[in-house]
Amino acid sequence: MDKKELAEFLRRRREMLRPADVGLVEGPRRRTQGLRREEVAQLAGMSTDYYARLEQRRAPQPSVQIATALARALCLTPDERDHLFALIGHNAPARLQPSEHVSPTLLRVLERLNDDTPALVLTDMAETLAMNPIATALLGDQTRHTGLARSGYYRWFTDPAERLYYAEEDRPRHSRMMAARLRAVLTAGSDVDRAARMVAELHEISPEFARVWELGEVARRYAECKTILHPDLGRIDIDAQVLFTENRAQTLVVLPARPGTDSQGKLELLSVIGHQQLTP
């Protein structure tokens, strides 16, 4: 049981909720940011004193039943619930197993996509296992990396070249998303030990990572809409669609542009020229 992280996680999630989110009346004189401790305790069916001791790092380990009640009271997502269980010291349901081999199902889908539709297969550690030719032309060869740099989470906070594909105004949001996805992997991923090593190293070398990590966000979401900055063709707006394997160990990410748009025309051109350089 990680009492410090558990206390901070509970406090952050409590402060993010409003009374209306859980069916309570806010009242005109409310000063507390988010829910009060007694309100969370009431929703979870426990004593206010016990919940307060959890946030004060003084409580004994909660049972599985209490952990479930807390997750319900705080309206946690499945990823956040798994993270809560791990902090308390209970096993979350095993959803992933590490694999270096591309899922045959995802590979078949990848091979049948149109030539002008970028797509790639990622592990839950954001390691690229396969890319179709236009995805390589759009994003560069992401399969060439070794060591911790195989992970897109790691490269985002350590390799400035990774950020050249994103508009400057989008980078802070992307940093938060990458940290949130890495936190989910840390407690319910295919290689928790390697994720922990990555988190420790990123804390040492990236002040930005340390800052966004403190937000405590947890998610497996992907940005549905994003803008890619291609070195030759400039801005390309795409809509990300994802397909998971049943155990969520691997993900096929498809990056189409909307039909009839300038971005679609650029992808069609990119599918023809590939890696050819357009400008001197």
Number of helical regions: 12
Share in β-strands: 5-15%
Q: Tell me the structural class.
A: alpha+beta
Distance, first to last CA: 58 Å
Mean pLDDT: 86
Ranges with pLDDT <50 over ≥5 residues? Answer: none
Quaternary structure annotation: single chain
Any overview of this molecule?
By secondary structure, the chain is α+β, with helices and mostly antiparallel strands. Helices cover 45% and strands 11% of the residues. The protein contains twelve helices and six strands. Strands 2-1-6-5 form a four-stranded antiparallel β-sheet. It has a two-stranded antiparallel ribbon with strand order 3-4. The longest helix has 18 residues, at 171-188. It is elongated and about 65 Å long.
Task: For the structure shown, list the relevant keywords.
280 residues; alpha+beta; four-stranded antiparallel beta sheet; 6 strands; 45% helix; elongated
Short description:
The protein is an alpha+beta fold. It has 12 helices and 6 strands.
Helix/strand layout:
Blueprint: H1 3-16, H2 37-44, H3 48-55, H4 64-73, H5 78-88, H6 104-112, E1 119-123, E2 128-131, H7 133-139, H8 152-158, H9 171-188, H10 192-205, H11 207-213, E3 225-230, E4 234-239, E5 241-244, E6 250-254, H12 262-273
Antiparallel strand pairs: 1-2, 1-6, 3-4, 5-6
Helix pairs in contact: 2-3, 2-4, 4-5, 5-9, 8-9, 9-10, 9-11
